[in-house]
Design goal:
- The chain has 343 residues and is an alpha/beta fold.
- Helices cover 43% and strands 14% of the residues.
- It has an eight-stranded parallel barrel, surrounded by eight helices.
- It is globular and about 60 Å long.
Length: 343
């Protein structure tokens, strides 16, 4: 198959393995960002999650700042900031400040999900997740970040963000989310790595409805990024063994019995067949295997989705296994750290 080798990016939820401290989990993620920078990956994004002992991706803008400080070329951003948890003014001030620190290497990915449970979401809530409220908040942030900044008639400015034109993405998993991205005229990243059931329809909806004349638009044509679960090892067998770590993580989501990232073990020893089937359906958009196997699988995903980029999420009990996998894939995919990154 001769599908183009599109740029590869990475999504990090800052996982914490069993026996690892939160500090060590954050340090492992920073090492991942440095490796991605060195190896030629396009972007390194941090997600936002709350009220979980297995992930340390709560203060997303702080993680972005730290990773950008430790890297040189790679774009660093959010995948995403869950806008219902924040006020638009606070978000654009934070990301405007990040641009002031690090120049044009910062991405602001925005989502409507809370990234947590209902009670925690109530404690965090600042912006409605309703579509029109979300659109209004994004447009307001765009206005505050323009060179000729406006504030919708309010006597308020976000001067630290003025002129930064922070690049924005919309994250989603359904046709409804895709339609919002299209209506805003912004790039769209589909969360197929954990919500694969409507992802092709979402991509189609986005492309069909994209409006480059939208008030908030930053691009002239549709631009898509597709989420993929990733495990790369020297052999297919070793990759499948390591994949059981990710299966166990999502098993905790399915059963409500979450725990820190677990070492590889035969999945049929810890879960009934119907639960394994449910987990594997959720993780169906994946590339697991040796470098040659993973390249073939990623090429097939690009051919199917016509993605402009792929964003990969990789969990390993041992962070060294993740770093090794990133190195193997970078070589097999032909990544070039000297090539310019996208805007």
């Amino acid at each position: 198959m001769n599908a183009p080798h599109v740029p590869l990016s990475l999504l990090d939820l800052v996982p914490i393995s069993e026996g690892m401290s939160t500090r060590e989990g954050i340090e492992a993620s920073m090492a991942g960002a440095q490796a991605a920078d060195r190896l030629g990956y396009e972007r390194y994004w941090f997600a936002e999650h709350h009220n979980t002992n297995s992930l340390a991706s709560s203060a997303t803008s702080l993680l972005i700042d730290r990773a950008a400080s430790l890297t040189e070329r790679i774009r660093v951003g959010s995948g995403g900031i869950m806008l219902p948890n924040h006020s638009p003014l606070a978000v654009i001030e934070q990301f405007g400040t990040l641009v002031q620190f690090h120049g044009d290497r910062i991405d602001l990915g925005l989502g409507r999900a809370p990234g947590t449970d209902q009670l925690t979401a109530q404690l965090l809530a600042r912006t409605s997740a309703e579509p029109q409220a979300f659109i209004a908040a994004v447009e307001q942030m765009r206005d505050w970040s323009r060179e000729e900044a406006t504030s919708g008639g309010l006597p308020i400015s976000a001067d630290v963000a003025r002129g930064t034109e922070v690049p924005m993405w919309i994250l989603g998993s359904t046709a409804n989310g895709a339609r919002l991205a299209a209506q805003l005229g912004l790039p769209f990243s589909v969360a197929s790595h954990f919500a694969p059931f409507q992802y092709l329809k979402a991509l189609e909806t986005y492309r069909e409805n994209f409006d480059p004349r939208a008030e908030a638009a930053q691009i002239d044509a549709p631009h898509t990024m597709v989420g993929v679960n990733l495990v790369v090892a020297e052999t297919d067998e070793e990759a499948q063994r390591q994949f059981t770590t990710l299966q166990q993580m999502f098993l905790g989501v399915v059963t409500g019995q979450r725990q820190k990232i677990q070492p590889p073990r035969p999945i049929d020893e810890v879960a009934a067949p119907h639960l394994v089937q449910q987990v594997d359906q959720t993780l169906s958009i994946r590339a697991v295997g040796s470098p040659a196997t993973v390249v073939r699988q990623l090429e097939e995903i690009v051919a199917t989705t016509k993605a402009d980029e792929l964003i990969l999420t990789a969990y390993s009990f041992d962070p060294a296994d993740r770093l090794k996998g990133l190195e193997l894939l970078a070589e097999a995919w032909g990544l070039d750290a000297s090539a310019p990154v996208a805007g």
